[in-house]
Every structure is written in structure tokens, then in C-alpha cells.
Amino acid sequence: MDAAIVEAVMTDWKSAPVSGRIRAALQLLEALTVRPQEVDRGLVMELESAGLNPSEIEEVASVAFHFNLMNRAADAFDFAMLDPEQSDRQSRFLRWIGRVLPCRKAPRPSFGIDDEGQLSPAELMAARQQLLAQPGSTAGDLRAAVMAHAGSLRGGPVSPHRLPAELLKYVEALALHAYWITDAMAEDLKAAGYSEEAIFEVTLVGAFGAVAPAFDRLYEGLYRDAGSREP
Amino acid sequence: MRVDLERGGKRGLAVRFVMEMVRRYVGLVPGPLLFFTYRLKSIPKGIQHYISRGVGRNGAFIRSERELFAAFVSSLNTCRF
Asked: Does ipTM surpass 0.90 in this model?
């Protein structure tokens, strides 16, 4: 894509010279990333009016989920930056992976409804259950508290759990501005008795908890009133 | 070091072999690969499956459009990655 168009999108996507369909995708990405509380049926109707069908909305949402999760992991764990040659090699490697792996078709229906009536992307509903139930270095109750607290900061329901005080700063940074996470925060957690594996789990569950509510809201808007319509 | 994603975790022989191939080709093991393999069994398949909906050649958007979307999200998150 033309570098000038990319620059224009980064500067002000609303005025960037892109098609209406791409602009609608950018609108969705911005809402899922920055204003998860505003993701609702009204937004879905706007996107559909702009030319995105439910299947395309789900595809854009998948990219948003991927990078919202990965950005938090990158900031939390301070991923090494690649130099231009390494970045080029990585891109070639990922392109090869992309050719080998077909775009995964969504299960039908592409959403699930849990015991509490929450409608979510089918895969994320299963992921949420696994993250809370699987054995690990942290207790399931702690993971539930981390996930719920992170989610409550980004459009999810108010958390019924109490988060241990030593995790508050870390989980809030992870949810709202992960680039604020510092070495000192990780050291504080280690001093409080958290192993590296426990910090990994807290980060994974917290990042998931922060990101997932926006996608629940999106799928509510896509499918709650639409019965089981197929994308 | 916050969490030693490269030397810590639990990885089987096959994963370590793939990591070594990537290290030789790219020059280092990129963060996402370290993250997703740190404790592979702890990463729900559902996360990988949902992400893979937006990857590959059969989607509605071409690769450069998806790369634009990814860069846009990273920019919104003030993340250099």
C-alpha cells in the first residue's frame, strides 16, 4: 500500500483517501481498540450501511483482537524490536505462513452463548473458559479476578471479584495503557512472590480480559437481535 | 528482564526445533513466537483459531489492507511493535 496513504490513515483516518469499505473497517478498529464501550448494534448498522457484511466485520475484528492482545504482550514483556533486515525476513516468513494457513472459516454459528446469557465469538468463549479452568501457576480465582478487573476497565461488567492490591497497578496498566508497564512493576510482582510463570499467566489473562469485552459487545450487536443469521 | 520468555516456559523438542530454524532465518526469535510458545498448552486454541480467521489468503481483505489494519491498531495503542 502507498506509504502516503498509510501515513494519512495514521494521521487522521477519517479524512484519509481510502475506500468507504476500508474507512468503515478503520472505524471498527478504532472503536474496538479505543472506545470499547461504544461498540453496539448502532455501530454494526453503520458498518453495514458502509458496505461491510457480517463476515467482513468478523474478519476485521479478528485482526483487532490479534493486535490488541499482542500489543499488550509486547509492552508487558518488552519484545525486542527487529532491525529492518530482520523485519523483512520475518515478513517473508509470515507471508509463507499466510500462504500455508488458509483463512480459518468461522464456526457456524460463529458465536456462542454462555450460562449467564453472554453472547461472544465462539472461539473466545471457549478460550475464556479454558483460561479460567486450566491448571497453572496461579489459582483459578485469581485469574478470574484479573480477567474481570481488566474487563471492567474496558466496557465489561463490573467485577464481582476483589483483585489483590499488588496486582492493581499492573493489571490497570495492562488494560488501559500497556506502554506504561516498566521493569520495576515486574520486579515488584516478583518481590510479592509471583514467579515468572505466574506473571506470564496474569499478563495473558489480563490482556485477554481487557480485550475480549469489546468483541462480546460487537457480537451482541451483530447477532443478538438477528437470531442465528449467517454471515 | 521482566519474564525470560526465551529460556523459561515449557517447550517440547519440536517447538524448540522450529524456534531454532526461525532464529537462524530471522536472526532472533520474534516476541510473538516466544509468547505463544512459552507455555503452548496454556494458550487456548480458541485464541489461535480466532486470530487465524484474519490471516491467510481466503479473506475478504488483501494482505496490504490487513497490514494497514494491524499498523493502525498498534498506532492507537501507542505500541511500536
From this structure: yes
**Separation of alpha carbons B41 and A223, rounded Å:** 31
Please, which residues have CB within 8 angstroms of residue A110's CB and are 6 or more apart in sequence? A58, A121, A122, A219, A223, A231
Distance CA B73, CA B79 (A): 9
Give CA angle at B27 (B22, B30), nearest 5°.
Answer: 60
Give B15→chain A minimum CA distance, Å. Answer: 16
Per-residue model confidence as pLDDT tens digits over A5-23: 999 999 999 999 999 999 9
Going by C-alpha positions, the residue among A162, A157, A178 that lies closest to residue A220 is A157
H or E element at residue A95: helix A84-100
C-beta atoms of B72 and A62 within 8 A: no
Q: For A104, which residue in chain B has the nearest alpha carbon?
A: B53
- The pLDDT tens digits for B33-69 are 999 999 988 999 999 999 988 776 678 899 899 999 9
Spatial contact of A106 and B50, defined as CB atoms under 8 Å apart: no
Strand boundaries in A37-185, DSSP class E: 111-113, 119-121
- Cis preceding linkage at A109, omega within 30: yes
Q: Which of A214, A206, A216 is nearest to A185 (CA)?
A: A206
Q: What is the pTM of this model?
A: 0.93
User: Are residues A87 and A103 in contact, defined by beta-carbon separation less than 8 angstroms?
Assistant: no
* Distance of alpha carbon B41 from alpha carbon B45, whole angstroms: 8
Adjacent-strand bridge partners of A119: A113
Name the residue type at position A100: V
